[in-house]
Design goal:
About 50% of the residues lie in helices and about 15% in strands. It is an alpha/beta fold and about 250 residues long. It binds NADP nicotinamide-adenine-dinucleotide phosphate (NAP). NADP nicotinamide-adenine-dinucleotide phosphate binds near residues 16, 185 and 192.
Length: about 250
């Protein structure tokens, strides 16, 4: 499925979970993957594993919520790769709390990483895509942007913002042959959901029409489709990968 030879993919938050699987899938289909996260040791280990399997991967430290760091990291990456064809904005955090207890820092950190970070990274990468008259941008939002979820006013707000960002940018850059889409995963088995109590997970499972949590592969396969040449007429779309939780 899909060949990404001679294409460069930049993935934020690629040290574990969904982002790491996305990087592995692209690399196994011929892409040169640029993997970023905040931790030098973790991102280098993830890239090294891909290289050991014969793929091409570059690791870079980049905290998406720090505009100066984003600028310098992307400039550094630009010295190693001539172009970026595909951008996967995946880095994200959750700091759950009920609104009456939510601290300003919990609100700010989630918005800074999930939404401000999307802006800092995308504005710089899209500049190159506009020049080359080609690009694919894929933003990872969440089902909770569509349904809401108690304890997540910060996270749901940031993820709903990503949907608006996706549609506005899709219109802005369509004439340059750049598509911009979002993926809204439901509950996916990663570190982000690992802390959930088993009883709560069981309750969740019961309410998912397909009766299971999603896997990182489920999400990665949606990313590959939206990044493919074959998806060239899809833009401004939100692809639900949620087992039927929201239709
Ligand atoms: N898992 C789910 O159920 C689920 C459902 C819907 C949507 N999503 C979304 O899918 C995306 C990936 O989630 P996941 O479950 O794979 O999460 P995860 O396992 O917690 O991994 C998050 C990744 O983001 C990186 N990251 C966090 N803060 C960052 C920052 N400020 N700058 C750069 N990188 C940062 C982390 O690396 P470092 O810590 O090294 O920086 C890590 O690589 C997120 O946007 C999440 O909101 C997840």
């Amino acid at each position: 499925m899909h060949d990404f030879s001679n294409q460069v993919v930049l993935i934020t938050g690629a040290s574990r979970g969904i982002g790491r699987k996305v990087a592995e899938e692209f690399a196994s289909r011929g892409a040169y993957v640029v993997m970023t996260s905040r931790s030098q040791a973790h991102i280098e280990a993830a890239a090294q594993e891909i290289r050991e399997k014969g793929g091409e991967a570059l690791a870079a430290v980049m905290d998406v919520g720090q505009p100066d760091q984003v600028q310098s990291a992307l400039s550094g990456i630009g010295e190693n790769v001539e172009k970026v064809d595909i951008l996967v904005n995946n880095a994200g955090v959750a700091r759950d709390n009920l609104i009456l207890r939510m601290k300003e820092e919990e609100w700010a950190q989630v918005l800074r990483t999930n939404l401000d970070g999307l802006f800092y990274v995308t504005r710089q990468v899209v500049a190159g895509m506009v020049r080359q008259r080609y690009g694919r941008v894929i933003n990872i939002t969440s089902v909770v942007a569509q349904t809401g979820n108690p304890g997540q006013v910060n996270y749901a707000s940031s993820k709903a913002g990503i949907i608006g960002f996706t549609k506005a940018l899709a219109r802005e850059v369509a004439s340059r042959n750049i598509t911009v889409n979002a993926i809204a995963p439901g509950w996916i088995e990663t570190d982000m959901t690992a802390e959930m109590r088993p009883k709560m997970k069981e309750e969740l499972r019961k309410n998912i029409p397909l009766k299971r949590l999603g896997s990182v592969e489920d999400v990665a396969h949606g990313v590959l489709f939206l990044a493919s040449k074959e998806a060239g007429y899809v833009t401004g779309h939100v692809l639900n990968i949620n087992g039927g939780m929201y239709m």
